[in-house]
Amino acid sequence: MAVGRFGLVQRLSKGKNWLRRLISALIVTACVVIVGMIIDAVNAVIIMLHFVFIFMLCGLITRIIKRIRKKEFKIYWQGWTAIIGSIAYLSVGAFLCYNVWQTDYSLTTDKQISGLKVAVFADSHVGTTFGGEGFSKHMETIMEQNPDIVLIPGDYVDDDTTRENMIESCAALGRMKPKYGVWFAYGNHDKGYYGSEHRGFSAEDLENELKKNGVHVMIDDVETVDNICIVGRKDKSVDRDRKPLSGLLEGVDDDKYIIVMDHEPNDYDAEAETKADLVVSGHTHGGQLFPVTYFGEWFGINDAVYGYERLHDTDFIVTSGISDWAIKFKTGTKSEYVMINVN
User: Which one, out of 78, 118, 135, 320, has a CA that is 20 to 30 A from the CA of 307?
Assistant: First the structure.
């Protein structure tokens, strides 16, 4: 085992291979258990997988260097660089996950809207990297940008969100007061997978709390304010009976600037064939972890993983999310909220 090559383990095992393997196994098990107790089991596994990947990479590099220098190292560089590299890499990943950046986009339209400023955040998964108080502070930061409208395309909460954090977060949304209001569409986690007993509130409780705080809850719904039309689609993976966007937009005035919230970015072709002007999504967490960042796009799970693209006359934006589900690291992206200026 790799751990057995460290000098301390070799000295403790006194040349006995069975003892070296046992000590190595105990060290690895202890590390996983301790990290699991400090954080949780999911992140303990993520940390170990990163260590294995970085250890293998360091092993390849040290073998190449040994062939060049044609002699063995006196220090177990593969192990030490793997440990230091893993700590540094995952520390950066935690920093990118727990801290939140603003990402700006500028769009143009021929429709009659004057300097519309749209704030978008998805995948807050309240309780993962911040609770209700932290969520409130992020909402204050967003409102400092004076958006005209705030959109939440899904995964606002999940099964690990407590009732208290949900209520406090909804109250924070109620204090925002943008010109055209706050709008919410469900993601795959919002209604919960394990029932209300697990997290202390039901999907109905969530909806009631959002509405009590003035949030427009959109479930395959279409509403118009001034010259803007907002559409909130059901989540594709949860609600198989959701209506096609073309059906939702029947009868909508073409002169309206049409914004669609669709949690999962995987209906681009059909959406681009409609008269929608802008589609905003989340769900992918920007690819989450390198090197799997773009696997969802490469294997056709999603039409996009992150960022902006335009198809026909429709603009599509996928945000990496303001937080994260379960995993407390982002090594292929960063946490963000989005500000879209439409002129």
Answer: 135
Instruction: Supply φ then ψ for residue 94, to 5 degrees.
Output: -70, -40
Residue that the structure tokens 């727990």 belong to? 98
Q: Distance (Å, rounded) from C-alpha 129 to C-alpha 329? A: 10
Pick left, alpha or beta for residue 287 (phi over 0 → left; psi -120 to 50 → alpha; otherwise beta).
Answer: left
Please say whether the beta carbons of 242 and 234 come within 8 A: yes
pLDDT score, position 343: 93
Please give the backbone phi and psi of residue 185, each rounded to the nearest 5 degrees, phi first.
-125, 145
- Look-up of token digits 């799997």: 292
Q: In the block, which residue shows the tokens 């006995």?
A: 16
Residue 135 corresponds to which tokens in the numbers above? 């969520």
Q: Using DSSP, how many helices (H) and how many strands (E) does the chain show?
A: 11, 12
From 103-107, 279-283, 297-301, the region with the lowest mean pLDDT? 297-301
Given a contact cutoff of 8 angstroms between Cβ atoms, the answer to whether 325 and 188 are in contact is no
Query: What is the model's pLDDT at position 1?
Result: 59
Q: Give the list of residues 6+ apart from residue 293 with CB closer than 8 angstroms, or none.
A: 286, 287, 305, 332, 333
Phi-psi category of 15—alpha, beta or left, where left has phi over 0 and alpha has psi -120 to 50?
left
Task: Locate 34 and state its tokens.
Answer: 């301790």
Q: What is the pLDDT of residues 247-262, one digit of tens each?
A: 999 989 999 999 999 9
Q: Element (H or E) spanning 218, and its range?
A: strand 216-218
47 is written with which tokens? 């940390």
Q: Can you list the positions of beta strands (E) in the chain? A: 100-107, 116-120, 149-153, 182-185, 216-218, 221-225, 228-232, 257-261, 278-281, 307-311, 314-318, 335-342
pLDDT tens-digit profile of 208-242? 999 999 999 999 999 999 999 999 999 998 888 89
- Is residue 13 scored above 80 in pLDDT? no
Q: How many CB atoms lie within 10 A of CB 96?
A: 21
DSSP label at residue 90: H
pTM above 0.85, yes or no: yes
Cα(262)–Cα(245) distance, integer angstroms: 10
- Report the pLDDT averaged over residues 45-71: 84
